[in-house]
Design brief:
InterPro entries: Redoxin, Thioredoxin-like_sf, Thioredoxin_domain, TPX, Tpx_CS, Tpx_Peroxidase_subfamily. One of its GO terms (molecular function) is thioredoxin peroxidase activity. Residues 51-198 form the Thioredoxin domain. There is one protein chain. This protein is α+β, with helices and mostly antiparallel strands. It has a single domain, classed as Glutaredoxin, CATH 3.40.30.10. Helices cover 36% and strands 22% of the residues. The protein is built from six helices and nine strands, in the order αββββαβαβαβαββα. The chain has helices at residues 2-32, 72-75, 91-104, 120-130, 145-149, 190-195; strands spanning 36-39, 42-45, 61-64, 69-71, 79-84, 110-116, 136-139, 165-169, 175-180. It has a seven-stranded mixed β-sheet with strand order 4-3-7-6-5-8-9. A two-stranded antiparallel ribbon has the order 1-2. The protein is globular and about 40 Å long. The relative contact order is 0.20.
Length: 198
């Protein structure tokens, strides 16, 4: 009888441990899980969530077309718009780069960075061919940017590149506006980005 009771107690402990481990795993997964956007209506997972408005920009690093790294220090004292997208070689990304180039010409003390995982050479080539001189290109190809801003795509054929998003910050690095575009094929809300600087 004593042996049966011991076995029953051990089994009960194992079951309790398994349940606790499952609950913990679910909590961790919830914390780690990010947003979901769509590509042609199909769901695509995003690595995290955009930083909250009112908070400071996360620490980041990006690579310019001159292959120089830029960080938070390099944008200190300037207002900044990050136009984030999957690839400069897609129609919507190209359109948003042209549009922000047009917008940037009328903004004072504001730098617009078009950010993607493309190599700096591809980004620079596109802007040169299009004559876009008001925006700056910045690549996340060797940096923590996607993770820091929660914009890495983690599923679908676009896994490994960045989601379409816009983040605006003031000269003190305080975030004024964020947008994660719900459908990757759509353009961002340009007016909302610009109005946040007024």
């Amino acid at each position: 009888m004593a042996t049966k009771k011991k076995t029953a107690k051990k089994t009960a402990k194992k079951v309790t441990k398994k349940k606790t481990a499952k609950k913990t795993a679910k909590k961790v997964a919830k914390k780690k899980s990010g947003a979901t956007v769509t590509l042609g209506g199909n769901p695509v997972s995003v690595s995290g969530k955009l930083p909250a408005t009112g908070k400071s920009l996360p620490k980041f690093s990006l690579t310019t077309s001159a292959l120089q790294d830029i960080t938070n220090k390099d944008i200190a004292g300037k207002r900044v718009i990050f136009n984030i997208f999957p690839s400069i070689d897609t129609p919507t990304c190209a359109t948003s780069t042209r549009k922000f180039n047009e917008i940037a010409s009328s903004l004072s003390n504001t730098e617009v960075y078009c950010v993607s995982a493309d190599l700096p050479f591809a980004q620079g080539r596109f802007c040169a061919a299009e004559g876009l001189a008001n925006v700056k290109t910045a690549s996340s190809f060797r940096s923590n940017f996607g993770a820091a801003f929660g914009v890495n795509l983690t599923s679908s054929v676009l896994k490994g590149v960045l989601a379409r998003a816009v983040i605006v910050a003031n000269e003190k690095g305080k975030i004024l506006h964020t947008e994660l575009v719900s459908e990757i094929a759509n353009e961002p809300n340009y007016d909302a980005a610009i109005n946040s600087l007024r």
